[in-house]
Amino acid sequence: MLYLISNVNIVNLATAALYDYTPYQPNAAALAAGYGTGDSCSSYGNRNFYLYFNDWFGTTIVANLPGCNLATNTTLACVWSLYNPANLETYLTSSVQTRDELFTNQGYQYSDIAFYGNAVALPGNIPVYNASVPGGGSFLTTNLSEYNSLIASGYTANGIDFYADPAGANTGLPVYRLYNPTTYQHTWTTDNALVTSLSNNGWNYEGIAFTAIDPINPTNQIPPPPPGQNYVYKFYIPQTNTYFYTSDIIERDSMINSGYDYVGIAFNSVTPGSANTVPIYRLYSSALNEHFWTASSAEETALVASGGWTNEGVVMYGSSIATPSPVYRLYNPTTGAHYWSINPYTLENMVGTNQWQSEGIAWYQP
Description:
The chain is elongated. A 3-stranded antiparallel sheet has the order 2-1-3, with helices on one face. A hairpin with a 4-residue loop joins strand 1 (76-84) and strand 2. The protein contains 9 helices and 18 strands. The chain has 366 residues and is of the alpha+beta class.
C-alpha cells in the first residue's frame, strides 16, 4: 500500500485529537464512495467521522453560493451546473437545496448557471425529469419512458426538476445532448462551440434534448412555426452588403453567438420528408464571397460547372405546388448581389430604385 504525505492545517484541539486517532487522509476514491468502499489506497476514519457528524448535526460548511440572478418575482429557474473532480461527473439541477447539498457534503464544485427553465409549467412547456446517475452526476430527459427505464435500471428518481419548451420549439436556446462512449457520461449544453469541441473529441451528438428558456436574447423569443414548416432566418452581412438565409437552428444560433447581424424570419420552408416539396440548393463563390440559393437543379448544375461556385447541398425545401406565398428573387447588376423576399411591396420598391432587377419567383413557401 502506498501512503501519501501532505501537510494538514490543524486549527483546534478537536481536529488534533481526531488526527491522533486516525492520521490518514481519505483519497479521492474514498470520498467518491460516500459510506462505501474506495480502492486499495483508501482510508476511512476521518471520512466516516465527517459523514456521521454531518448526518447527525448538520453541515459545518456554509455554501454561500449565488442566487438565481433572473428569478426574482418571475417563473424562471436557474439550472445550476456542478462538477465532481473525484469522478468527473456533472450534476444539473434547478434545486438550490440539491445544489448546496452537493457542494457542502458531496465534494462537488460549483460551476455556473448552465441555462434557464421555468419553475412552473407555462403554456407550451413540458417537464424535464432528473435522475441521479448511480456513479454520480445527473441525467435530464423529457421522455417519461426513458426516465422510467433509467429508474428501473438503478438510477435515483428525482421527479420533475423544471419545465422547458420542446426540442425544435424555436422559442429559446436549444439544449444539446451529447454522450461519451468511453466514460459513459452525458452532458447537456446550449454552447455551440462546446458541442463542436466535444464532437471532435469523441463525444456522440444525440440531438436537441429540449429548448431552454432564454430571457436574455430576445432574438430567440419567437413562436414555433406551423406544423410541417420551418422558419428561414435572415442575416445581414455588412462586409459584402448581402444577406444570408438558413433554416438550421444550430447554424442560426452559432451566427448570433458569433456576432452576425440577425434580422429575423425571412420566410418559411417545408420540413424535410413532407409531400410536394422541391429542394433548395445553397452555393458559395469564394471569389465573390457570396452565397446563392436556387430551386432549379439546372441552374445549380450550370453554376457548379462554371467553376466559380461550390454546391453546399440542400439546405431547405420549398413547395413544388404554386401557393399564394411566393419567394421572389432580385438581382443587382452593379454589385452582383441577389436578394430574396416574400414581400411584393419590397419587390416593387427595390425595382423602382432602378438598381435591382426582378428575376421572378424563385420558389413557393408552404
